[in-house]
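Review box. Two proteins, two foldings.
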Amino acid sequence: MNSQLLQQIVKKYESLYGSDHIEVRAPGRINLIGEHTDYNEGYVLPCAVSPAIYFAMGSREDGKVCLNSYDYDSYCEFSISQKEAPKEQWASYLYGITQIIQEKGHKIKGFNCVFGGDVPVGAGMSSSAALESGLCLGISELNGLNLDKMEMAKIGQRSEHEYVGVKCGIMDQFASIFGKQGKCVRLDCKTLEYEYSKLDMKDYIFVLTDTKVKHSLASSEYNTRRSECASGVEALKSKYPEINSLRNATVDQLKSVIGKITDTIYNRCKYVIEENERVIKACEALNNNDLETFGNLLYLSHNGLSKMYQVSCPELDWLVDQTKNMDYILGSRMMGGGFGGCTLSLIKADKLDEYKSVIAPAYKKQFNIECKFYAATAEEGTALVK
């Protein structure tokens, strides 16, 4: 936990509103494997990480919500009963949480809030889900609502859908809330059943290498992929009525409808079906402490994302390719929606400095961009700070 940052946020809160407050930590997340499977009702394998967003919050009696972004020195105020979203884009995530909680029949007071964090924005650790999860828990605590974890995850997801306009799956909010130290969690995005796997990392760590790029294709292509997968399901359903999502399909069934779908849709669907299988194999490998098999699954995942799902980019592909010549790296893949963001690599801990010293100058030479690195360990999910 970043105690120094939390102290700064609390100090800011107390200077504005006094000492009566609660403190919440809401972590970012990484997804070990299972990319673009969530909206296809498949499996994902995330964990909460050490970078987090911290909140100092306290109730007020006048129905106002006073939000202070510590990182950006920005302020937003609205009424708890206000039906029009504030003009500040960053406040939309938080305004949405207040509205959805009330729509569910809960009475809540206004509140003061100062928040800030060290979750890197745009690096694929889902700072937005941490923001939603932390505020949701804070409101629940201040008003004695006792919202359960799954309900809070769903509220965060709805806020993204309805107030931000991002049709995300539930993985990000789920991982931020349900994370456990030293464990990853396999989530069934269809049934919302979940199961933890121990991350016995031996002498390895996960490292994110941030390309520092975000290509403009990302949002439009995300929606296109969803549509392409839906077309594949429609074709499958015409022959196999029991199939309602790619989660229920096999590659053999997909092959049987080749004449009804384009090569592109075939590749999109085949990737998703195989990625679901890789998540299951990854859990088996982790439970058997078999990091070599797990690492190879990361490479297979990236190959599918790059060649079949086509959501990678030259920077991500280049970073993954470099790791294949490094004997201290067991696996690497792009992580997140694609077209930029980070690679996730499984690296021997005592070789991290060597990896950075090789990759940083070579990446700069190749793309004229300074990449960044983040070590990631599995940490506890959203909770009050004791």
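Next protein.
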Amino acid sequence: MNLFSEEMLSAFNASVLPTDEACLLPREVYTSEEFFRFEKEAIFYREWLCAGRVDQVPNVGDYLVVTILDEPLIVARTEQGIRVISAVCRHRGMVLAEKGGHCSRFVCPYHHWTYALDGRLIGAPEMDRAIGFNKAEHNLPSLPVEIWQGFIFTSFNEQAAPLAPALAELDPLLDHFELPQTTTRTGTKIPDLPWNWKVMMENFNDPYHASRLHGPLQTFAPSGMSDFFDWRDDMNHISRIQHFTEIDGSFNPTKKCLMPVFPKLTLEERKRGMFILIPPTLALAVVPDEIAYFIIDAQGAGQISIDINYCFNPEALKDPMFEYLFEQAEAGVNNFNVQDVYADTMVQKGLNSRFGPRGRYSWQEGTLPQFNRWLVQRYRRHWPSSEHPADG
């Protein structure tokens, strides 16, 4: 089958049916580098991408350095608020910074071109003889920014539709966690994982595997105790509510919260968690004492890296036992990660097989056809014509 034929476009139809009728997307969308190049244009260069948390740049001059799709970016706090700018010097292409920190301006280490925190070129040594040179024409490119629940999003698309309305169902469910006021705790970065970014997202929000792959670790949150959202075409999240067998369940071998629970949670909220995808880069696991978030960096059809961090109520960090408790909580999450890494690796291997399936979904996988709908909307909207192939 021609990868970008009408036949392939029609093949997506079977994946966006109701859960009890739908099946997996064609295996090529997980394995083809050509298809991944198409996804970069159709999805990654158009959607909102998570670049970090507001509290990671609390003061003017604080900045993060992030790389998204091999694009070096700076997330900086200016007097006017948070900006996202290119980290590539406009002179010869030198990357301005490799890690975050604090400064009053960015100075290129190569030739000392100097930029304000908002990306304006304010110094260019010995450029006075360059005919027609105007500093104002050599500012660092700036990207749009939207803040949602304390997360910083940016986009390579200047016309990206506002993100918040597409996440409207989530706000009341997250209200008592007071996410904008939480404290971010850095976790682990896992590089060079050998699977497609969609495999990661599907596994993250698939309750069907929880009682099976994770076995005794997740008896507090059985596969059959999830509520799925009703889909609407302008949604920009794929989420579910996960109910617990008892109060204050969490991801560690005790299966109970180790940290203080978020203080405003109701009794009902302490008996459930949430799994949230904001494709193509952010996944959140919400339990009563912590929010673990995963930023996914897609690097090829079969390679990603994951940056895992955590949000806590600020009071939790004042506990003298916090570092000890956090060590145990992070180890608990890693117990799940080890099993998920194994499963995702083997799924990608299977999808690369000539016998890779288009399997049917269980009723416990209601999030997966919804994710397919999110994807197929974008595939159809930007499907290349024969005159404009995907890799052109």
